[in-house]
Write a structure and sequence with these properties.
It is a single chain. The chain is α+β, with helices and mostly antiparallel strands and 402 residues long. It has 15 helices and 16 strands. 46% of the residues lie in helices and 12% in strands. A six-stranded mixed sheet has the order 1-3-4-12-9-5, with helices on both faces. It has a three-stranded antiparallel sheet with strand order 2-14-15. It is globular and about 60 Å long.
Length: 402
Amino acid sequence: MSKPNPTSTECPVVPYTFYAPSAPALTFFTVMDGHQDTGRPAVRSDESPGYLIFTDRDTILDGLQQPDLWSSTALDPTEPDPPYKMIPIQLDPPEHTRWRHVLASYFSPGRVRSMRDSQHRMAAELVEVLRPAGQCDFVRDLASVFPSRVFLQIMGMPEDKLAEFMQWEDGVLHRDIENDPDGSRRNAAMGEIITYFMGLIAERRANPDRDAQDVVTAAIGWQVDGQPADDTDILNCLLFLFMAGLDTVASQSSYMWLHLATHAEHRLRIVSDPAVIPSAAEELMRAYPIIQTSRKAIRDAQFHGCPVKKGDMALFPLAAAGRDEQAYPHARSVDFDRGVIRHLTFGAGPHRCLGSHLARQELTVLLEEWHRLIPDYELVELPNEHSAGVWGLESLPLQWKV
């Protein structure tokens, strides 16, 4: 089947708002499904400054693999000239490549595997604490806690400040047009994080620990392309790692557990056949991609039939890529027997998720330990979800028999 090649004026205009107010869970996936059905390979939002929304999996893949056309310097389609620069996610090659080399070893497959046993112990301990109560808010009590504790250990940051860290992270990533219409809440939270890291770097410099293996301690001595990294770049890199480490796995797991709590056949499959868990994790990630990333055109071009001008913004929603029924049969349904899944939930191109090995392992470990200890559970009530660049549930009330 041939695909349409609309011009920018022919792209259907849809009522899409990047910072949409919170809505009942799965609303945003349903909305994106509808936009995909409305227009391929793109639709258009008139939200200022106006931007394309690519809806076709192969088009999204192609765009993410073309940093010479689509720059990562702006990741919010409503903010083409952001006042901040998180490293390395807002860098383009070759500068991005240099920073990725600096960070790669902290998230390598070997290093991630070495943490697996301790992650199993941590996950089991957290679930054991919850089990006697017969209920929990999965987002608050486990999804936010488990990956955050793992991340803080990697970073070398104090676990007793987790609640404060989560408050800052919420201010930066979970804004919408109702709770933060002018972005002041986000900017204030970002300032708190930067101030904290400035103090932490100063403390590590004043009291060096030669045996420490954490990221913050190592950052003091980072070299990029043979030159010492300056403090501004170090701070911007730590800011990005902070945002990614405290939010993405928590948000992804929240949708996975919502699905399992409302689809008993899939939950029972995991319980009766734990060997299916790695495949189930991949399929659930494909069906519920949480990252909706944006790019900024750095030159005039024709892109899949869409005229693009230098400076134009475009949204590359991974939710559309993962649920594209031209790429995956029955894409909006979950099938643990789908086989090899080449999903884009971790992105593609030079900015493919640096922490994908860690995220996969954390999700798999959490699925294994939870279903070993709490095999039968159900949803209490449908929660709300938040939008923007990282979709996630605001809560997830579950209950089970004790």
